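Sequence in, structure out. Go.
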Amino acid sequence: MIKSTLAVAISSALIFTSPISKADWQDTLQAAQGQTVYFNAWGGADNINQYIQWAADRIEDQYQVTLKQVKLTDTADAVNRVLAEKAAGQDKQGSIDLIWLNGENFRAMKDNQLLFGPFSQTLPNYQRYVDENARQSLTQDFGTKVDGMESPWGMAQVIFMYDTETLSTPPKSMAQLLAYAQANPGRITYPEPPQFLGSTFLKQALYELSPHRKVLSQPVDQVDFKKVTAPLWAYLDQLHPVAWRSGQNFPSGAEEMMRLLDDQEIDVALSFDVSAASVQIDQGNLPDTVRSYVFQNGTIGNTHFLAIPYNSSATAGAQVVANFLLSPEAQIHKQTPTVWGDLSVLSYDKLSASDQQKFDDLPRGIATLSIEELGQTLPEPHSSWVSALETEWRKRYAH
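Output:
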């Protein structure tokens, strides 16, 4: 869901404010009162924006902290702003207090020492409810060690959608998808890279098609990129001529794909939001005959995070926001299918019996898969693969 484009790197000395320790959490709460936290977050989905506003209202009431969302179309814009502020020597009073990010945007900020922290492991709700051993993506963000420099917010996994009225048996692998496209020209497509979901489609295909999938966890400059990716380009060379609009045009993202599915222009859409179909059905944007599914050998999943820039003027307030967003209240509301449906990062076993029951009682949504149905989660490749894949794709296929 988060657009990730690697920011231009600069080298500079390490400058950051020391984080407030767990022992001083009450001091953090007191320091946060009256602060305004400027939260830079992708603003492309109304239901997510509404969830952030719900959280802002709760945080204002409980902690007297004002949370203001700055809506982004590309998270890299925020990363580059912090880079520019550092280059200009603006090491205090930065314009951003909290960023929703993961992948190469996190790597860019960490490598260039643009982050406040470590802070996440001292948050009371992190210590109480997060099990770092539950999923590798909690401590390895696209192959980059988290090291407490960002706080987990939610988990995502690639799902596919189809209309049961028009398609009885959807393709459940990349090979089946190509065969379906060849038998039904114009009915299959994917978003255009570097849109994040389009880039994820490339990674999903690479996992399935390349015999060298183990090297995807390594930095791309340490492997034979041409050799590893050759099956991917051969696949796309076959897919594009029989794709929607003959591979000359591509959807802009998940939202357009769902509109095309609703208009019966295409037969399969994809999303990184496991509840996307249920939410869109509830909002009247998809017919109630649409269902979700995953590929038989698994789909790519990841964790998305919140990070605090090193020059934030509201580090206490930002930590209070991050801690609230890790509360059972906030995570339960976020996982409600008609609100967002984003998978919780909390450990079920660490929850109270009453909070466990609240998760159990969540309506799953008419087209939302259960955890069991989501099956195997494939790890993200090292973040350096994203830019390399996008560059090569655009060189070959961009018009």
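Check: Residues 1-17 have pLDDT under 50 and may be disordered. The CA atoms of residues 3 and 196 lie 5 Å apart.
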